[in-house]
UniProtKB/TrEMBL annotation:
UniProt-annotated stretches for the region Disordered: 1-49
Protein name according to UniProt: BTB domain-containing protein
Record-linked InterPro entries: BTB/POZ_dom (IPR000210), SKP1/BTB/POZ_sf (IPR011333)
One Pfam family, short name: BTB
UniProt biased composition (Polar residues): 1-19, 35-49
Length: 435
């Protein structure tokens, strides 16, 4: 089973990430209830629980205190404003110095609350604010094949992209997004391996995020698993209408999930709210994983009556795979190809040499045995072949790297990404309960 996040850890981070000569203070608790002054009604809620000073981003010479969950940060408004005046204005971080009323954020007890952001996410953003992206130590450089480090870096870049978008830091967002694109297009296998093994240990930056995951019918919710970070990346890619990032992230999580045979895990992700509408191809892939488990599992107590009916009916309708799944797919993933099959994809008559080269590489990754399997009349064989499509896409990308014409290589891979996700989207429509 993929590893879970710790559900309600509390404490402070021991990881370092800021640079410079600014002084930090030692970790100490701040009891908000000890304040004798009458609190502002709008701040009453935040004054009820004690807070802990962050050990990395609480600077003695900072100009404003910010509270995220139960962690207080003290940072420099000049640096925040340099990246986003919108952020400063939204939370009144740079008030008029001539104002008669005292502003918030002058002390720990009256820290400005930043809602809907986890302390760990904010630390990742501060890691860049206090060390510019052009500086090579802004984030730890990851060595090839260091899968856990690669996963950790992806985690950080995703936080930076999401928060910089939220706070109007456009340059930072584009910088972080480019790194995310690089990961999901060039390190899919390493990311999948890293997230399969990735655990936030007791000194993790996320231990004070205070996330509580309660089970429903004995099944943990999807956010309890680290791999849910890919779902957050999918949501982000959809919000920013970034198709390359969306397809790259979908392909990565699908490869990461391809070996999963734990029915409770599969059900927990199928239950993600609005997943079928927002990411239908991921829903379709998860449905394939459920179908692969077979009817002995479908009758188990983990599935609802609707799940069972959908699985049994899909088995009937998908044996063999209907033409509606296969038609109008530009890349030859359902047949033995020839060089001319890639003409539509490459869309240029002068690419005859490239078509021949691609056809040769394609045959190595999608051999005759694959073509037999995906068109098999045996249900389990065709389902396995469909699930393995994401791995074959990764292998084809590696095979095509030596090509001199990178333009044709990228055209083909982009179209194959679209086609694979279209097939999974079509499969999602077979999740139906026939009464």
């Amino acid at each position: 089973m993929p590893p879970k996040r710790s559900s309600n850890a509390n404490g402070s981070s021991k990881r370092t990430g800021a640079t410079g000569s600014r002084k930090r203070v030692k970790k100490e608790e701040v009891d908000d209830t000890s304040n004798d002054t009458v609190p502002n009604p709008g701040n009453a809620q935040k004054n009820r629980t004690p807070a802990t000073r962050d050990t990395v981003y609480y600077f003695e010479d900072g100009s404003v205190t910010l509270r995220l969950r139960d962690i207080v940060f003290k940072v420099h408004t000049s640096l925040l404003k340099a990246h986003s005046e919108e952020f400063c204005n939204k939370f009144n971080l740079c008030p008029d110095p001539d104002a008669s009323l005292a502003s918030e954020g002058t002390c720990d007890e009256d820290a400005i609350i930043i809602p809907d952001v986890q302390p760990s996410q904010f630390r990742n953003l501060m890691k860049i604010i206090y060390c510019l992206p052009s500086n090579s130590i802004a984030l730890t450089r990851t060595a090839p094949n260091d899968t856990i480090a690669i996963s950790s870096s992806f985690d950080s870049y995703l936080d930076i992209a999401i928060l910089s978008r939220k706070f109007g830091m456009d340059d930072l967002e584009q910088w972080a997004k480019q790194h995310l694109l690089d990961f999901v297009h060039n390190s899919r296998k390493d990311l999948a391996k890293g997230f399969a093994a990735y655990r936030h240990d007791t000194s993790s930056l996320r231990q004070d995020d205070l996330q509580i995951f309660s089970k429903k019918d004995g099944i943990s919710p999807a956010p309890a698993y680290y791999i849910f970070r890919f779902v957050e990346a999918i949501w982000y890619a959809k919000e920013t209408s970034d198709e390359p990032l969306l397809h790259g992230t979908l392909g990565t999580i699908q490869h990461c999930l391809s070996s999963v045979k734990d029915v409770k895990f599969i059900i927990s992700f199928l239950r993600i709210q609005d997943l079928r509408e927002v990411a239908p191809s991921l829903f379709g892939f998860l449905f394939l994983l459920l179908l692969r488990l077979g009817n002995s599992v479908w009758t188990g107590e983990e599935l609802t009556q609707e799940d069972r009916m959908a699985a049994f009916s899909a088995q009937s309708f998908l044996t063999p795979l209907p033409q509606s799944i296969k038609e109008s797919i530009p890349t030859p993933i359902f047949k033995r190809p020839c060089a001319s099959d890639f003409m539509e994809v490459l869309n240029a008559p002068e690419d005859e040499k490239c078509r021949g080269e691609i056809s040769s590489y394609w045959g190595k990754v999608f051999p005759a045995s694959y073509c037999r399997d995906i068109n098999s009349e045996q249900f389990s064989v065709s389902i396995d072949a469909l699930i393995a499509l994401v791995l074959r896409r990764i292998d084809l990308g590696a095979q095509l790297r030596p090509m001199k014409c990178q333009s044709c290589r990228l055209k083909l891979l982009a179209q194959l990404d679209r086609d694979i996700q279209e097939v999974y989207t079509r499969l999602a429509t077979y999740y139906k309960a026939y009464v």
